[in-house]
């Protein structure tokens, strides 16, 4: 996102403000530090100045004291001198005594009026002419009584350098009578300065008012010879110019070439009158004075710099952190905005999907209130969305279902048991106008703000139900009598046998044939015959329990299935016998048809079965057989099937033995029958098992497969078939004509349900490396009736391996229709019985059509088997069928022949289909 200029300015402004504050704080800090340091320096200087002043004062006192003492000595000499008879001797003695008493005096002299030494503490000076010396010339020129003449330093006969204090002497008439002189001892004054020297960085000096130094420490010969006042700006000049007896100055010292704090004093002791003054001064170099302060300043400076740097770095880091936080905040804001935009787009997208979905979507909260509903659902239920929102969902259910639904939801919320979640179910819905309609409903659950929200995906399945009902009616019921037909009977019989295998209970089959029906038909016409059959059906239904099945087997034959006759064979036998006798009685009553009384009797064959009995076809055969027994015994009677007496049984046993041998010696062979698309392309083949028996010839699989299923050898046979089929698929892959062809393999229900079938398939596929999508497993509906959930699970697992599924003989079963949509199927196979009757039987055509439509609605391919003629094929194409298998295209054939067929297919198909 781009920042607008004001934002940028204000952020720059925001960034610079802390720096301004920091600079201000630092400036204040530095100023305070500097003020403090300055005051410290001032205090230091003041303190040092006071120290120096005290020192100078001490020196001043010493020098002043010496001068007072000398003045006293000179006064003494002045007083005594007139009394000297022998000035030399007497004077010398006195002067020597006085000089010894005064440590600051080097020598004492008395000069006559001409300047000759009359007497001296140093005898060698007596008689010398000193008339040129300043200590003589000055008082001589202006002799003043009581005035002490202080000479500038000069080289004397005794010393390198001395200063003299002299007084003019007068006689009684107050005439000039000579002078008395005291020459100061330079060593004494140097020692004095040394004693008072406080430190190595201090110099001290004793100078004459005229600018010459008398004593200097540290000693410097050069400076001793110079006149301090000769160059302007000297400390002495400043001191004298101040006119004060004491001064404290901070200034560059010419003497030491540095900045000095200098305390100076003019020696003016009280009671001393002198023509010139001596000045004492002590100077200390400023750096030495300010050494500690300099260190303090350095420390403060360093600390200040460190603090400033620290503050600057801290501020920089803080600002960087702030910028980082700001950037992150912006990024977060940006990503939140993006996420919100994405969310919005996603929500719009989802809403658009919901709005345009064909299926209805309804969400309800845990209280069963409708939270949202999409347009498809509104259309389905005939409401506007506003009419349903926040309403109880029971509004959309038949009255009886509402309570059950509430119970489901509360059970689910209490226990979490997912009876309603994730399961697609067919339920009833209620439209606004009260109409009840079938719908499919799949419920899932999500959580919204911690509360469960249930999402119901609904679809109006009225059409599908209608198609299913039509198929069911057409496929499973006899149109004339409304009774179940043989397909439904077989299906129920198979189910009854399966449940008998589980619970060990007996059942019975009653095979009923109407005696002399053919003659009624022939004499009274088919219409009368039909009505007769309808009347029989009615009586049968009325005479039996609702749970018993009465089916029309065909023509004038009916079959009754009695179930749950108990676990004792004898009781079952009696029960079946009683039922048959009742039917003999009921059906033997006269019939009034079209005002004609008609009399008819039935012959009934009975077979009682349990879990150990054979398959359904076998039982029917036995019942049929028994019925013939009854007929042969004179009609209008019943007969039980006696298995032991049947020769068929022996045959069956022999076949079974042969079958076991065939399994052991692998006497089987696989044939391949072509499967062809509507445009004549070869799609693949179905593998069909053949048993070329050494003596019986080819035994039909329709005969030996049920036997193999009964005896359990089917698993071995089936495994062999699958191995062969995989090997064949691999062989086809190397031939251009057969590469890519699919191969359908029949799986018997026993085989499919055997334990470990999944791992058997996994191993087989891994071993052979066959392209799994080319292998199609054909299941009959009977494979699916038992334990539906585990069948669905197993099919799902196999599907995940890549295998495909075709539902064989579709339309002949019943129970699978209800859960057909839940099976992972790829193809439905229209049973050949429908195809066979397609041209002649409208019913068969209607069933084929319904199957094709059902396949379409479930997204499954549909193949028709048993296509024998071009007419059947054309009719099926007209109904929308996609693929065909049957003698019209090719008979089942050995592998080599099929390979040849595939090679010739393009030309052959063109010939056949006239393309
Ligand atoms: N479990 C297994 N069952 C198998 C296996 N091989 C076959 N079978 C099943 O046996 C039943 C009889 O099979 P078959 O005698 O081979 O009959 C098949 C075809 O030969 C026959 N057919 C094909 N085209 C036509 C035709 O145009 N007219 C006509 N009258 N018959 C034709 O139909 C049978 C096709 O069977 P299907 O497609 O599987 O329904 C049969 O139920 C086989 O399934 C096996 O290896 N395992």
Identify low-pLDDT runs.
Answer: 1-6
Biggest beta-sheet profile? 8 strands, mixed, barrel
Strand content: 15-25%
**Gross geometry:** rod-shaped
Widest beta sheet: strand line-up: 23-24-26-27-28-29-30-31
Per CATH, the class of the largest domain reads: Alpha Beta
What is the SS-derived class? Answer: alpha+beta
Q: How many DSSP E strands?
A: 31
Q: What would you report as the Rg, rounded to the nearest angstrom?
A: 71 Å
| Count of discrete alpha- or pi-helical segments spanning 4 or more residues | 28
Bound ligands, named by name, code or SMILES: ligand LFPHGCPZ
| CATH homologous superfamily classification of the largest domain | EAL domain
The first-to-last residue Cα distance is 67 Å
> How many independent structural domains?
4
Keywords: Membrane, Transmembrane, Transmembrane helix
Pfam families: EAL, GGDEF, PAS
Domain GGDEF: 505-643
Transmembrane segments: 20-37, 298-318
Overview of the structural elements:
α1 packs antiparallel against α4 and α14 crosses α15 (526-543). The chain folds into 4 domains: 54-289, PAS domain (Beta-Lactamase), CATH 3.30.450.20; 354-465, Beta-Lactamase (2-Layer Sandwich), CATH 3.30.450.20; 477-641, 2-Layer Sandwich (Alpha-Beta Plaits), CATH 3.30.70; 656-914, EAL domain (TIM Barrel), CATH 3.20.20.450. The longest helix is centred in the N-terminal third of the chain and has 76 residues, at 5-80. The radius of gyration is 71 Å and the shape is rod-shaped. The two termini are 67 Å apart. The protein has an 8-stranded mixed beta barrel with strand order 23-24-26-27-28-29-30-31, surrounded by 4 helices. The chain has a 5-stranded antiparallel beta sheet with strand order 2-1-5-4-3, sandwiched between helices. Strands 7-6-10-9-8 form a 5-stranded antiparallel beta sheet. The chain has 915 residues and is an alpha+beta fold. Helices cover 49% and strands 22% of the residues. Mean pLDDT is 88; it is low at 1-6. The structure holds ligand LFPHGCPZ. Ligand LFPHGCPZ binds next to β24, α19 and β28.
